[in-house]
Task: structure prediction
Amino acid sequence: MLVFKFGGASVKDASAVKNVGEVMKLYSNEEIVVVVSAMGKMTNALEKLAGAYFYKKGNPQSTLKEIKDYHIEILNELFTDEKHSIYDDVNNILVELEWIIEDKPIKDYDFEYDQIVSMGEMISTKIVSAWLIKNDICNIWVDCRDFIKTDNTYREAKLNWEDTEACVNKVVAPLVEKGKRGIVVTQGFVGVTSENFNTTLGREGSDYSAAIIGSILKAETVTIWKDVAGVLNADPKWFKETEKLDALSYHDAIELSFFGATIIHPKTLKPLQNRGIPLYVKSFYNPKEEGTLITSTKELPADVEEKPSFIFKVDQILISILPKDYSFIVEENLSDIFRIFANFSVKINLIQHAALSFSVCVDGDRRKLPLLIKELQKDYKVLYNEDVELVTIRNYNQDTIDRVIQKKKIFVEQKSRQTARFVVKNVD
Ligand code: ASP
Ligand code: MG
Result:
């Protein structure tokens, strides 16, 4: 049994959906759970709709029309028969959205957001499932709200593992039993509370959905299909000469995503590592190519090369915190400082601790940081540098360091055996 995850880019238009069908044809003898994200940038569009509706800013009706038109255009290209039942299926979901925005919000923004934004996955999976059936790829559309059970932390819902495990085993497992050749199409990113309200698992959470299902069903492998060849050693947005990594350990992949690499949703790897299920990242353009294998260290090919990887986090702020009276920074201060960061939910990306100061690098959040700094200033002297970058190099050497720090002013430098990290700023 395999789990496939197709992200937004892999279903962004009619020809992309057709391509998903081509990939599926390569696996015609397998039982597969197919997890699909919302099409293209539809989650952003639905976010816009949720904002316009809740905050009465902009025009929710016109945003909904854009969402409708986008999907209808894809449908028209895929299903020439206007009487095909998919038109009703998609329309019913769009009508549900219409009903939501015609009424007044009943709870807070995060709640309303999840009721609206989750519809992107409902629509995309209906379309993918119908397209596969039209192409003789027999499958069953299953509502993930029948098995992805969460708490009610809307927009960042925590999985209820026990309930989810029981429901996946009850609802999904029988459909993909070995030898049945069953294919299940279901939604990523979305879950449900015990009171039957929709939740979402955090942006880009479909990878995590695939990992949850894969780990509960003890899949042979989980594959994330992407528009790149696999996990690259740097984000092409920041780096010209990227290379694909052929294989890496769960541990390395977790560290990369912890340091800020965005290729895989950070929560994805742990459930797979716990059950030893290999994760592949492959290109949906070249589905026969190897892609990247992520597995346990002992399963890695012996000749796997430890290529250097680069992770760039831009728009960072380096905050230095000093006692007002020039005493040392000791444990009491540290617990005080960490508590303030936790209270403002500001995530710390790097820490540097010296006798007279304590520095941290954080994302440049223009809303939270002024409040946080004000709070710190009650007891400490606070200095900060805006617009710095945090660069992490895994498997570094002097060459790679020289490459990333040239023409930069270095504020912080940290090296461990495998990882070098720098807080830098461009000098013009
Ligand atoms: N559609 C959701 C998002 O864009 C989930 C995902 O793509 O993984 O964040
Ligand atoms: Mg996505």
